[in-house]
Amino acid sequence: MKKILSKIPKGTYLLISIILYIFVLPVIVTSSYKDLIYAGFYSLILLSISSIIGEKKKWAQLAILCAVCSIWLMYFTDEQSIKYFAFSFSILIFSVAVITMIGQIIRKKDIDRNLIIETINGYLLIGVIISFINSTILWNNHQAITFTKDIGLVNIGDIVYYSFVCMTTIGFGDIIPQSQIAKSVSIFSAITGQFYVAIIMAFIIGKFINNQHKN
Question: Which among 24, 51, 85, 87 is most buried, taking Cβ atoms within 10 Å?
Fold first, then answer.
């Protein structure tokens, strides 16, 4: 069993947790236990990140544990400060994970499944970061981001959808940023998403060409 698990790329668990967050969480969000479900999914992503940045770093493991505790605490208290701290601290950890993965992608010489998974994880994790930022904005101002039909955002699925639409610059126009900070975040997400794809693809293509020349 250990041999089988050791062959699984370490980024696989993070990839699965992000996919669950993007596609499964919005579907079951109507449950009466939605707060516990939120906390569970957020915690799963944070714990999965430990395989990326916390394997041999005690400070990283402690930071991830602190973030998980704050995520659970914010759903059992009405203190806005705790909610802001939980999301801000989680965003910081996600950002460190993205930077770590980008560094690993740049340093690797060969193109393998680990590299591909890390590339996908980095892109999807940026989308998660943007969704956390948008969630924080909406907590502060419920009218900061709205549907064109003026029915307001319904659940976390709408926030995730809007965040990835902005990041990929698709722009369906069904959800619109209203406040200035929401508009700034939408611009930031679009620029970040496009720069990530352009830069990472350039590195991967460069590695592929170098390997072809060596062979």
Answer: 87
Strand partners, 175: 147
Domain-embedded: residue 3: no
* Ramachandran bin of 112, using left for φ above 0, alpha for ψ from -120 to 50, beta for the remaining angles: beta
pTM for the full predicted model: 0.90
**Bigger pLDDT: 7 vs 195:** 195
Cα separation, 23 vs 156, in Å, equals 11
List the domain range (segments joined by +) for residue 183: 9-213
207, 111 contact by CB (below 8 A): yes
pLDDT at 108: 85
Distance in angstroms (rounded) separating the CA atoms of residues 38 and 80: 17
Q: Place 46 in a pLDDT band, splitting at 50, 70 and 90.
A: very high
CA distances, 19 to each of 14, 87, 153, 190 (Å)? 9, 19, 21, 20
Amino acid at 178: Q
Cα separation of 85 and 69, whole Å? 11
Per-residue confidence at 28, pLDDT binned at 50, 70, 90? confident
SS3 call for 124: helix
Sign (positive/negative) of CA torsion 130, 89, 156, 78?
negative
| Mean pLDDT to the nearest integer, 77-83 | 82
